[in-house]
Amino acid sequence: MHLRSLTVQAIGPFAGRHTVDLDALGQSGLFLLEGPTGAGKSTLIDAVVFALYGKVAGADASDERLRSAYAADDVQSVVDLVFEVPAGVYRVRRTPAYQRAKRRGTGTTTAQASVTAWRLPAGADVSGGPEALDGSGVLLGTRLDEVGAELQRVVGLDRTQFVQTVVLPQGEFARFLRATGEERRVLLQKIFGTQVYEQLQQRLAALRAEAARTVEASRARCGEAVAHLLGACALGPDEQAATRAALDAAVVGTPVAERVAQVLVATTTALDAAADALAQESAAAREAWDVARAAHEHARDTSALVARRAALRTEHARLDAAAGEHDEDVRRLGRARSAAAVRPLLTGWHDAATAHEAAAKALVAASDAAPDDLLPAGGDPDAWRPHLRAQRDAAADAAAALRRTVAVEAGLADRRRTVRALAAALEDLRTEVAAAEEWLAARPAARAALEGERDAARAHAGRADAADAARAAARVLVADVDALAAARADLAAAQAAVASAADVARAALADEAALRAARVAGLAGELASGLVDGDACPVCGACEHPAPASVGADHVTAEQVLAAEQARAAAEARVADAAARRAGLVERVDGLTARTGAHDARSAAAALHEAEAEVAAVTAAATRATALEAQLAAHDAATRRREAVRDEVLTQVRTAEVTVETERDALRRAEAEVVEARGDHPTVAARYAALDARTAQAADLLDALDAERAASADAGRRRTELDLALAEHGFADDDEARDAWCAPPALAELERRVLSHTADLARVTAGLADPAVVALPEDVVADVAAARTAELAARTAAADVEGRAHVAASRAEAAGQAAARVRRAAEDLDAAVAAAAPVTRMANLASGTGSDNAHALSLATYVLGRRFEDVVAAANERLAVMSDGRYELVRSDEKEDVRSRAVGLAMRVVDHRTERARDPRTLSGGETFYVSLCLALGMADVVTAEAGGVELGTLFVDEGFGALDPHVLDQVLAELGRLRHGGRVVGIVSHVEALKQAIADRIEVRPTPAGPSTLTVLAG
After folding, report:
1. Which numeric CATH code is attached to 2-166?
2. Are the C-beta atoms of 1018 and 22 separated by less than 8 Å?
């Protein structure tokens, strides 16, 4: 995978928009990402990882740091990355979730994370930045989960693998180098994703435990079935012990089903035979009981017939004695029923005669009470009807004509009150209209005052942006003043350190020079010590050596000179480091001084206080403007409501004026109508009452005449009906019919006695004629007690035998069922043992505890061991170059401590100068760096191969080069150059000065005086 272009906006310390053309940087194959600590180098790497996977590079880092603290609220945080894989060119654009100011109102809201991905056409030009790519390519998706899955598919690595192979974190691999075997197991499992093997191992162990539980459960069920069988058979102690011993012997070993079946057949055969014998005995006893039961029933039936015959003969004699009384009751019942038929007519005639007499009396009373002018003089009452009807109709018509006027007269008082109330309400409405007009006249002036206050507050609130900018600048100034004071203190310390290191370096240089001079002075003695007579002198060539120089006691050796040289070089390196730190601090102090100018801590704090006060005032003005706007809206709404009320009241005034005039006219017409209608009476109601009374009197007389005529006719009709009924039922007169009548209770009792006697006589006669009674001899005798005793004895004997037979059959059946259960349990046990065998063997093999696993290695550890061997082999190829063949990594099968599970993951470093294996923790800082770097590169190669041969065209190597001496640094750069020659682009993240001189292409990240960082790309 090749990274081609990266654009960031409002990310980390970068407040603006910056684009890195990685294609241009990759032309030379090696570039440097450099800048001061905290300037934003790691932010660029986090942006790459975030664009691909939605999270930053560090495992413990928070995504919240992506949003730039220097970005304005309306600027969106964006990462836009273009990369190329064998499958094509892809572009992904992500925004993180962050808090931003609300567009309406106050407070903040969450801007949700988003992503958009495209597949670009082959050969797409990315040098113009993401704007030039807008509108091109095929959209892959906008959902976080869909795009994440698609990007991981095309890259071929998950986030953990990507961070371990594209961004090589040497600090983590230094920890990996010095880690214990158990710590390596955890890290390797995380990188290579071998948790599946450990999960498989755990799953097999769970299956083994489950199979063991199944076998034990089957064995327990087999034991329960055996115990149930022994209980069902009800064997004696000896038989039970023998049977249990035989079954226990059959269950030992596998298979057990056949041996158990043989013991069960012997156990249940005797029970079946005993049950058959008792069943035959029970059948014979039941037949004897049936014979005895039939004899008992015959004796009982004969005894009952004898008793019934005697009772029927006694009752028949009693009925014969009461025959005369029965005949009299029959006669009386006939007469009473005839009187009951006549009685309603007799009662009806009596009631009609009484009603006629009352109607005649009522007619006389009504005529006496009527006024003289209502009745005609003399004549038959039947002739009064036409006159009375004429009087009644005339009075009713006159009263009907006055009925409406009576109501009008009764409502005059209410009408007068209504007119007065309407006139008063009209005056109140006119008063309310006047008050509303006065209130509305004062509203425009009040509104103008509110508008003036609102406009002033708005003008003050309009300075919010300037106040915020001033406060932000003041905060930056305060931070810069504080940072300047700290930087000056650090610079003073750095200058002291440079001076101290320079003194040490000058002393080391003097020591080296003195030792070299002393060695040169003593070289003659050193050469003379090697002269041999006859051999040529290496200086003068003579073969004779008459006066060879001698070696002094303080002669300086070559090793001493070399040690002094190394001490001098180390001192000079320390001077260079201290000088580099001082130069960085000088640059920082100069930059901060330029940004702070003449400000000190007090003036900066005063400026910040003044800016914050102005922000608070502007905020208060904005709040006041909002409140005044609301007051103005409320003022206008109140004015509109009052105007609406006034208009409504005016409408009511006009309506009330018309209503008052209308009601007054109606009152005058009603008063005139009442005066005309009352005539010579005091009121219309009095005249109406007199007419209504005359109508009622005439109607009462007419009703009395009609009632007397109807009562007379009804009495005559009923007398005729009564006379006919008396003659029909044989009564001479009314009194004879009254004497024959019986009250309902007495009549019911008389009917009951007649019917009861007739039914009893018929029943007794039929009973005596029963064939069984007729055929019964007169001297028959039945011994029921003896027959019952014989039947009871036979029943007891049959129940006893049947109970024993039932117990034997139940025992045999239960034993058969229990035996079948034992057979099934034995078969299940055989099946469980057979099923558990392969699972147990595989689980033991995977966990390293089986006899087939000679090295006692678990499956997960074995897989990690093979991956670890590949990592060590790949690392050693580069380590041989970087260490000049001195160091080699080797894997050890020994446990590093008794608690470690990771057998085979121990590691040693072989030093070929001494041919001894060393603990990695004994390496120096520089040695640890390049050994860790080789291990990281080897891990990257293996992870890449494990991911299916994914091509990694771009590689970032993190900080750590400052610990290397010049020679090793050259070796490391040479190895990284070999990666470059293999087609990779390598980016080195560092601020080492020597790397700046060695690598021309770079990304320079620098903080600005205002706080945010900026970057510059130098390529070509």
Report:
1. 3.40.50.300
2. no
CA angle 141/143/146 to nearest 5° reads 75
Sole residue written with tokens 């009596």: 350
Question: What is the C-alpha separation between 347 and 344, in angstroms, rounded?
Answer: 5
User: What would the mean pLDDT of 389-417 be, rounded to a whole number?
Assistant: 80
d(CA 260, CA 822): 8
Separation CA 379–CA 282 (nearest Å): 117
pLDDT, one tens digit per residue, over 789-817 is 887 888 888 788 777 777 777 676 666 77
Task: Pick 785 or 178 by higher pLDDT.
Answer: 785
Question: Rounded distance, CA 437 to CA 653, Å?
Answer: 15
DSSP designation for 70: T
The strands making up 906-911's β-sheet, listed across from edge to edge, are 887-892, 906-911, 916-918
Q: Is the peptide bond before 96 cis (omega within 30 degrees of 0)?
A: no
Phi then psi for 7, rounded to 5 degrees?
A: -125, 130
Structure tokens at 729: 């039922």
Say what the pTM is: 0.41
The whole-chain average pLDDT of the chain stands at 79
- Higher pLDDT, residue 273 or 879: 879
At 567-588, the pLDDT tens digits run 888 887 888 788 878 877 887 8
- CA-nearest of 31, 25, 3 to 977 is 31
DSSP-assigned beta bridge partners for residue 120:
89
Give the C-alpha separation, 622 to 464, whole Å.
9
Evaluate whether 227 touches 886 at the Cβ level (below 8 Å): no
Cα-based distances in Å from 500 to 177, 507, 704:
35, 11, 152
pLDDT for 117 equals: 93
Nearest to 34 by CA among 989, 1011, 1000: 989
297-to-291, 300, 791 alpha-carbon distances in Å: 10, 5, 10
C-alpha torsion angle, residues 809, 810, 816, 822 (rounded to 10): -160
450 CB neighbour count, 10 Å cutoff: 17
Q: What's the CA gap between 135 and 44, in Å, rounded? A: 26
Is the confidence at residue 238, as pLDDT, over 70? Answer: no
CB distance 729 to 741 below 8 Å = no
Q: What is the 3-state secondary structure (H, E, C) of 83-116?
A: EEECCEEEEEEEECCEEEECCCCCCEEEECCEEE
What pLDDT shows up at residue 252?
60
**Exposed, middle or buried, 28 (CB in 10 Å: 0-12/13-18/19+)?**
middle
For the record, the structure tokens of 208 come out as 């083994």
Ramachandran assignment for 553, one of left (phi > 0), alpha (psi -120 to 50 degrees), beta (any other)? alpha
**CATH class in words for 175-222+858-951:** alpha beta
Residue 118 CA to residue 92 CA, distance in Å, equals 6
pLDDT of 1: 78
User: What pLDDT is recorded for position 90?
Assistant: 93
Secondary structure (DSSP) of 335-373: HHHHHHHHHHHHHHHHHHHHHHHHHHHHHHHHHHHS-GG
H or E stretch including 673?
A: helix 601-677
Per-residue pLDDT tens over the stretch 618-674: 888 888 888 988 988 998 898 888 888 888 888 888 888 888 888 888 888 887 878
- Closest Cα partner for 229 from 758, 893, 813, 945? 813
- The Cα angle at residue 536 between residues 531 and 538, in degrees rounded to 5: 75
Tokens standing for residue 595? 């940004």
Name the DSSP class of 5: E
Cα separation of 167 and 48, whole Å?
Answer: 10
> Which pLDDT value is given to residue 898?
43
More confident position, 252 or 801: 801
User: What is the spatial distance between Cα 347 and Cα 470, in angstroms, rounded to a whole number?
Assistant: 123
Res. 896: pLDDT tops 60:
no
In whole angstroms, give the CA distance from residue 194 to residue 188: 8
Q: For position 262, what pLDDT does the model report?
A: 57
Residue 563: φ, ψ to 5°: -65, -40
Q: Quote the CA–CA distance of 687 and 406 in Å, as a whole number.
A: 9
